[in-house]
Specification:
The structure holds three protein chains of three kinds.
Chain A (H helix, E strand, L loop, with lengths): L2 E3 L3 H5 L2 H13 L15 H6 L2 H15 L4 E4 L2 H14 L4 H5 L1 E3 H8 L12 E4 L3 H7 L4 H7 L5 E3 L14 H4 L1 H17 L4 E4 L2 H13 L5 E4 H5 L6
Parallel strand pairs in A: 1-2, 2-3, 4-5, 4-6, 6-7
Helix pairs in contact in A: 5-8, 11-12
Chain B lengths: L12 H9 L2 H23 L4 H17 L1 H14 L3 E5 L2 H15 L3 E4 L3 H5 L2 H7 L3 E4 L2 H9 L15 H11 L10 H18 L2 E4 L3 E3 L4 E6 L3 H7 L3 E7 L3 E2 L5 H12 L7 E6 L7 E7 L3 H5 L15 H5 L1 H6 L10 H12 L16 H5 L6 H11 L4 H14 L2 H11 L8 E2 L7 H4 L4 E2 L6 H7 L2
Parallel strand pairs in B: 1-10, 2-3, 2-4, 4-7, 5-8, 7-10
Antiparallel strand pairs in B: 5-6, 6-9, 11-12
Chain C lengths: L2 H12 L22 H10 L3 E5 L4 H8 L5 E4 L14 E4 L3 H4 L4 E4 L3 E3 L4 E4 L16 E7 L3 E2 L2 H7 L6 E4 L4 E2 L7 E2 L6 E7 L2
Parallel strand pairs in C: 1-12, 2-3, 2-4, 4-7, 5-8, 7-12
Antiparallel strand pairs in C: 5-6, 6-9, 10-11
Classes of the chains: A alpha/beta, B alpha/beta, C alpha/beta.
Bound molecules: iron/sulfur cluster.
């Protein structure tokens, strides 16, 4: 199986460590992963903000770049949702490659049949299921099942977990007031867990929550769950 | 394409939201009420084994109905008329107000009792009647609260959701004759409303209602309610005038099964609401029965292939109750009688997007609304679709174009990443950024680009 | 062009070229399917109705007990005499609205019921009277025969005549308008007694 990594523009620019974690993790599990250097951005920002014409070249570009691969994995629920849910509507020819695009926990659980990634992570962790992963992709328990198998982890429930953090792409700028109110509630809920780490499947949501936590002077760190699954033994 | 008029648009959403966000009591009231109803809804929905099939049936019946709306409306009209109802048609809010005003004027009455109806709020009926010297008395408890307070509704189902029991008690004591000593117990408040309205019900000659469903096959109208004020208005007066949006049609009587199961569980979180009335033309009760079929922009919504699903809405308000944006702002920020997620897709379509340009953006696209909608309206999809049509600022457009131009080409993209990369420094975040990112840094730190992008690290060998 | 013609033309124009949307298949409904009286009773109680049971031949006696203390009772014109044989209070047959506002209770039968939701349906048929009758008094005592109980909404609809004036009642009048919590008792009867009678 030829497996490609779609890193996403946000991870490429701001969170390269997440991409490295995915690569490390897959290699540890015995899978080679390629990084097609021509990849750019999935076009979600444009498509969701009402700029379909600007998104279309990005959609076509993605389809072209990833066409040769049997599976594409991405450490972003929201970008995976963009590809799987929206690509077939925007560019029908992209439907095939869209169907072969997986969020990390889907690839691990559904395609590779992995539950235990062999990681160890001796920290107290709360997990925030990000909206697009949860509702559009239907990730369900997958990320949590993977996290539960991590050695030493103390996974604590997040109150109101399924409520949006208020990011919403340009929403955070256009409706900054409402977004900040949602964020404040999410930060309070995360802090109330007593966790050291708040994990999620999307670095953009984590950037939002983390930005709020850091502004509030909180010691709670945000970490992409791929980095937890790749942590410890063998890495 | 002819758009709707009436109470369908207001101020810019982000601006209208600001004072509401600062109102702590409002936030508490909303959180308490929506939290209560979410839990109830989840419990009764969980009881139904075939809930997903039921939702799909609801969606499919509505889609089929919309596809055949003209024929079904004609069939409804014919059946209702055969049963003794008089059917009127209204192109827009003004025409509907005129028809209803004339019908009331012809009875010689100067006061009418009203059953809660979104359509009458949409067309601004109460104000139009007042201008003709006719008083419309709202009889639904929440509507009565809003009317006594001189306020506007903020929720589809519970227009006074923004008020808590203490505020309602104070209002009743001040504005309701004979209620000076009422307590803040909901049962006591309800009893005060019962005393206050009883006389009106027993003496009213004209009632105005909406309808939840209109059955094409039989000409039957259906009103779903809780308090019994609906039954009072539909049964006791001599003249009954019902304003019905053209999208309220369901093809057959048997189709009601699906909606009578979906609606109460989704709206009040009950297996069944206390009262549902169904009547066909002149039956037992009013001797003059009028039905006003309303377009007011619905035909324009129907013309939009993606957006027309907004017409499937059965006004259960489940999407409002789960919406994190609605929970923070309440309904008034939406500027339309239709607030929340459904309002954000319905209002701009009824009025044309230009008249409601901020509403399609009043959502994070989190999808909680779609998940609960009993007729599976894909609200996030319609929002994105409307964003496409919404007018945009030239600056934003230029920025989006530039970004797309860079990102569609791997070399340009790689160069941009390199240019953005920042050498390692102590702080990895920014506390203040220039516009437009200043909106972000108002409440959150902004992460800075890494010293090296992923692709560069990959080249160096991960 | 009249408003009617114009609206219909607008709607037809809006659907120009629209793809067909087939009607969903209608499940076959067995109108004679019987609902479970136990479930019915439980669901009625959930919504604060008071449930009484009457075995074969016990209806009049049970009603006598339920109606004890009712000074003035309203009944529909065709209420079977036998139902009242153990009741000694004053009975008004089909009183007008003003009189209804002063009675202590109204006694009627029902047309069908829905066990799943604890709903009784009146259709102005035998022993039910006009709609106002069960609306204005503060207490409604309703006799429901076990054979009238349908399992679900679909079967109940199938048993009803669509054009009859129908009132679906699930518990006493209630409201959720204050803080979205349900409280019983607004404009309709604040007390609902259902006598489930075996036939
Ligand atoms: S859009 Fe759906 S969830 Fe929202 S009010 Fe309408 S039917 Fe209910």
């Amino acid at each position: 199986m030829r497996l490609a990594l779609f890193i996403t523009c946000v991870n490429d620019l701001v969170y390269p460590a997440t991409g490295e974690a995915v690569v490390r993790l897959l290699r540890r599990l015995g899978h080679a992963v390629e990084f097609p250097g021509a990849q750019t951005c999935c076009g979600q920002l444009h498509a969701n903000s009402g700029y379909r014409d600007e998104a279309l070249p990005l959609v076509r570009h993605y389809a072209e770049v990833f066409a040769p691969y049997d599976a594409v994995v991405t450490p972003s629920g929201s970008c995976a949702a963009m590809v799987r849910e929206w690509y077939p509507r925007l560019v029908p020819e992209a439907a095939d490659v869209a169907a072969r695009t997986y969020e990390l926990s889907e690839l691990l659980t559904d395609v590779l049949g992995v539950t235990d990634t062999g990681a160890s992570y001796p920290h107290r962790v709360a997990y925030h299921p990000t909206c697009h992963g949860m509702r559009v992709l239907g990730l369900g328990e997958r990320p949590l099942r993977l996290l539960r198998a991590v050695r030493g982890i103390d996974l604590v429930p997040l109150p109101g977990a399924e409520e949006c953090c208020g990011f919403g792409g340009t929403f955070a700028l256009k409706n900054a007031g409402v977004s900040a109110a949602m964020l404040a509630d999410k930060c309070r809920a995360a802090e109330s867990t007593g966790a050291d780490v708040l994990a999620a499947a999307d670095n953009s949501c984590l950037a939002h929550i983390g930005g709020g936590l850091s502004r509030a002077g909180s010691g709670l760190r945000t970490v992409h769950y791929a980095e937890i699954l790749a942590a410890g033994e063998g890495s | 394409m002819t758009h709707g008029t009436g109470n369908l648009s207001g101020a810019d959403f982000p601006r209208a939201a600001l004072p509401l966000l600062a109102d702590d009591r409002l936030r508490r009231n909303l959180r308490h009420a929506t939290g209560t109803i979410r839990a109830k809804r989840a419990a009764v929905v969980g009881e139904v084994d075939d809930w997903e099939e039921l939702r799909e049936a609801g969606r499919a019946i509505k889609a089929h109905t919309m596809r055949h709306l003209p024929e079904l409306l004609e069939r409804f009209e014919e059946a209702a008329a055969a049963a003794g109802a008089t059917v009127h048609w209204a192109r827009d809010a003004t025409e509907a107000c005129a028809i209803i005003g004339d019908l009331i004027a012809a009875t010689g009455e100067s006061e009418v009792v009203k059953v809660k109806s979104m359509a009458t709020q949409e067309i601004g009926l109460n104000e139009a009647l007042e201008a003709r010297g006719i008083t419309a008395v709202e009889t639904d408890l929440a509507e009565l609260i809003v009317q006594l307070a001189g306020d506007t509704p903020s929720h589809i189902l519970v227009p006074a959701i923004h008020k808590n029991r203490g505020e309602i008690r104070d209002l009743f004591r001040a504005a309701m004759p004979g209620a000076q000593d009422v307590s803040d117990e909901p049962a006591d408040l309800a009893a005060a409303a019962r005393r206050h309205l009883r006389e009106k019900f027993l003496s009213a000659k004209v009632a105005v209602s909406g309808a939840n469903f209109a059955v094409a096959e039989t000409g039957t109208l259906v009103v779903v309610e809780s308090e019994g004020n609906g039954r009072m208005c539909l049964t006791l007066p001599e003249t009954l005038i019902s304003l019905v949006g053209v999208e309220k049609i369901v093809p057959s009587f048997a189709d009601l099964e699906v909606f009578l199961r979906l609606l109460p569980r989704s709206s009040t979180g009950e297996r069944m609401n206390p009262y549902t009335s169904m009547w066909t033309g002149v039956a037992d009760g009013p001797s003059a029965v009028h039905i006003v079929l309303l377009d007011n922009g619905r035909s324009a919504v129907l013309a939009d292939e993606v957006g027309r699903q907004a017409l499937h809405c059965i006004r259960c308000s489940a999407c409002l109750n789960v919406c994190p944006v609605y929970e923070r702002t309440g309904g008034h920020a939406y500027g339309s009688v239709y607030p929340g997620p459904i309002g954000a897709i319905l209002s701009p379509q009824l009025t044309g997007v230009a008249a409601n340009r901020s509403l399609p953006f009043a959502s994070t696209l989190c999808g909680a609304c779609y998940e609960v909608c009993p007729v599976k309206i894909d609200i996030p999809r319609v929002l994105v679709h409307l964003r496409q049509e919404a007018p945009k600022s030239p600056v934003e457009r230029a920025a989006m174009r530039a970004m797309s131009w860079v990102m569609r080409d791997p070399r340009r993209y790689a160069r941009a990443l390199r240019a953005a990369a920042l050498p390692l420094r102590r702080r990895r975040t920014l506390r203040r950024a220039p516009w437009p990112l200043s909106a972000w840094t108002a409440a959150r730190d902004l992460p800075l680009p890494a010293a090296k992008s992923f692709r560069e690290r990959w080249k160096e060998g991960v | 062009m009249s408003a009617r013609e114009e609206i219909l033309a607008r709607l037809r124009g809006a659907l120009d070229g629209a793809a067909e949307a087939p009607a969903p298949p209608r499940p076959v409904v067995d109108a004679r399917a019987q609902g479970d009286p136990e479930l019915m009773a439980g669901r009625l109680r959930d919504y604060k109705a008071v449930v009484h049971r009457a075995g074969p031949g016990e209806l009049a006696a049970v009603l006598g007990g339920v109606l004890a203390g009712v000074g003035v009772l309203a009944v529909p014109p065709d209420l079977p005499e036998a139902w009242l044989s153990a009741h000694s209070g004053r009975v008004l047959r089909d009183p007008d609205v003003a009189a209804l506002d002063t009675v202590d209770a109204v006694l009627t039968g029902a047309a069908v019921a829905v066990a799943e939701t604890g709903t009784i349906v009146l259709d102005a048929g035998p022993a039910q009277g006009r709609r106002a009758l069960t609306l204005v008094p503060d207490r409604h005592v309703c006799v429901l025969f076990t054979r009238q109980i349908a399992p679900g909404v679909a079967q109940a609809l199938a048993r009803l005549r669509p054009t009859a004036p129908l009132t679906w009642i699930s518990g006493p009048s209630a409201t959720s308008d204050i803080e979205l919590s349900r409280v019983e008792g607004v404009h309709g009867p604040r007390r609902l007694d259902v006598v489930i009678a075996e036939y």
